[in-house]
Design brief:
Elements (H helix, E strand, L loop, with lengths): L5 H4 L8 H10 L1 H6 L12 E4 L2 E7 L10 E8 L4 E7 L3 E7 L1 E7 L1 E5 L3 E5 L4 E6 L3 E4 L4 E6 L6 E8 L1 H4 L5 E5 L12 H9 L7
Antiparallel strand pairs: 1-2, 2-3, 3-12, 4-11, 4-13, 5-10, 5-12, 6-9, 6-11, 7-8
């Protein structure tokens, strides 16, 4: 053979049906999707007492739904409280279902080479919001949601594109925990009601 790299590319005896698996995966999609839910009832949406706060997951990759690209959750912030403070590479949008408050955003300078580096800017900017507004969180921004009302809870719907995670960019860092966070706490309707009606600073 005339190719100069013949001695190199002919090496190796491992055989694997990788392309055939891709074909099979595509062919099986209709049957696989038939078993995945298009409608979820409230009882199908799991609660989580997370470091970011009180969450009710609406769509998640682990919830066996037809959604391929978006993770979404509802976040509840008790009167006068706040979410955790975190940073992730994916951009995020949040719809304010009820309540009023503000976001604290801190930009980060990012460098991605063989390693990943970021440095937070000194300035922390405040963005006020109320029910009906949409909050946009740029990529890699340290952010926190604050309930400015001492009597009424805040409810937010968060949506993030999971394509970042599938591209190897699943960068997520918790910088500060929500005040309500307690490891191992299970949420029930009664417990959530207690959080949402408790006066600021009260422990449920």
């Amino acid at each position: 053979m005339a190719w100069s790299e013949t001695s190199a590319f002919l090496q190796g005896e491992d055989n694997q049906p990788l392309y055939a698996r891709s074909l099979r995966h595509a062919q099986e999609a209709p049957a696989r999707n038939a078993g995945r839910r298009k409608v979820l009832r409230p009882a199908d949406m799991p609660w989580e007492m997370s470091r970011q706060g009180i969450l009710k997951h609406l769509l998640n990759e682990d919830m066996n739904t037809r959604m391929e690209t978006v993770d979404a959750y509802m976040q509840l912030i008790p009167p006068g409280s706040r979410s955790g403070r975190h940073r992730h590479l994916a951009e995020e949008c949040l719809y304010v279902v009820e309540g009023r408050g503000y976001d604290l955003h801190q930009d980060c300078d990012v460098e991605i080479t063989d390693t990943y580096h970021w440095r937070a800017a000194d300035e922390v900017r405040r963005f006020d919001w109320e029910a009906g507004d949409v909050i946009y969180v740029p990529p890699n921004t340290i952010h926190q949601h604050v309930n400015a009302d001492p009597r009424c809870p805040v409810r937010l719907i968060s949506a993030v594109n999971r394509i970042y995670r599938h591209c190897g960019l699943a960068d997520l860092e918790q910088i500060e925990d929500a005040p309500e966070y307690e490891p191992g706490v299970g949420l029930t309707a009664d417990r959530v009601r207690a959080y949402l009606t408790a006066p600021p600073g009260h422990t449920v």
